[in-house]
Design goal:
2 domains; globular
């Protein structure tokens, strides 16, 4: 394989933000297993994953197209400014992603498709209008809890109690946004962008990412403690332990290298939030 081909393939893999896409696909599959109480048949699981993948490709490619002017100055090695991916290629990925989402999402029914389209629309709205504003956290707060709600609905097992993920996980979803934006704080501040993270700065954004993430198991424990017949919260306790472990790992990495610690914050925070969301789902929808 020629080096140019390797560079192009790598560019197309990185263009839609590979790590977040993999995390979302893993979350979709795991919530599907919980909803089905076992592995769903391939005729359901495969289109479910493809529908979510299509939306994520569209969101990620749109994000890179919007960021191209600033990336050309601050991040010239990224796929678009480096030339590894063409403008046409990024636009094609956006269109193909949307078509894949529609083709694989529609068969699950109108309500499930509406939820899927809403989540994808919030992601695109973040790219186009919210990302460089003080409201950049809002699409995360609205979109992330939709994932398990959509999965359960698509598989014909809607669970109204999952709506509690909004008040209980609100701060944690904001923490995911803070963690994802953390490596770009310095560049955003230099560009004068009025985002919440650029106003906070690197250190406070790191702290806020983890404090909001830790709020998820704490708020779940408080909510269940107030019930007359509280369910078994061993899953939530385990999730809290994993969150603290991931925080300790991140602090260790940060102590060794600040830049690497900031980069590691997003995957660790995202996994912690996913685990806490799974724990809540297992607890309320056994």
């Amino acid at each position: 394989m020629k080096p140019a081909w390797r560079r192009s393939i790598r560019g197309y893999l990185l263009l839609p933000h590979l790590v977040p896409v993999l995390v979302v696909e893993l979350a979709t599959a795991t919530f599907a297993v919980i909803a089905w109480d076992g592995f769903p048949p391939a005729r359901l699981l495969v289109p479910l994953l493809l529908a979510m993948l299509g939306g994520q490709l569209a969101i990620g490619a749109t994000n890179e197209l919007v960021d191209l002017p600033s990336d050309a100055v601050g991040k010239p090695s990224k796929p678009l400014p480096s030339g590894a991916v063409s403008l046409r290629g990024a636009r094609v990925m956006t269109l193909v992603g949307l078509l894949l989402m529609i083709a694989c999402g529609l068969p699950f029914g109108s309500l499930a498709f509406a939820l899927l389209a809403l989540g994808t629309g919030l992601g695109v709205a973040y790219d186009l209008w919210f990302k460089q504003t003080a409201w950049s956290w809002l699409p995360y707060l609205l979109a992330l809890p939709l994932l398990p709600i959509w999965v359960f609905t698509a598989l014909g097992r809607p669970e109204p109690r999952l709506l509690w993920l909004y008040p209980l996980g609100a701060l944690a979803t904001v923490g995911v946004h803070f963690a994802q934006a953390l490596p770009d704080v310095a560049i955003d501040r230099q560009a004068g962008l009025p985002t919440a993270t650029s106003r906070l700065g690197g250190g406070p954004t790191f702290l806020a990412s983890w404090m909001t993430t830790l709020s998820a198991p704490l708020s779940s424990w408080i909510a269940f403690a107030r019930l007359d017949h509280a369910p078994d919260i061993s899953a939530i306790a385990a999730a809290a332990g994993m969150t603290i472990l991931f925080l300790a790992v991140n602090l260790t990495i940060l102590g060794l290298n600040r830049r690497t610690g900031f980069a590691a914050c997003f995957p660790l925070v995202a996994l912690s939030t996913l685990i806490n969301g799974l724990a809540w789902t297992i607890t309320v929808a056994p």
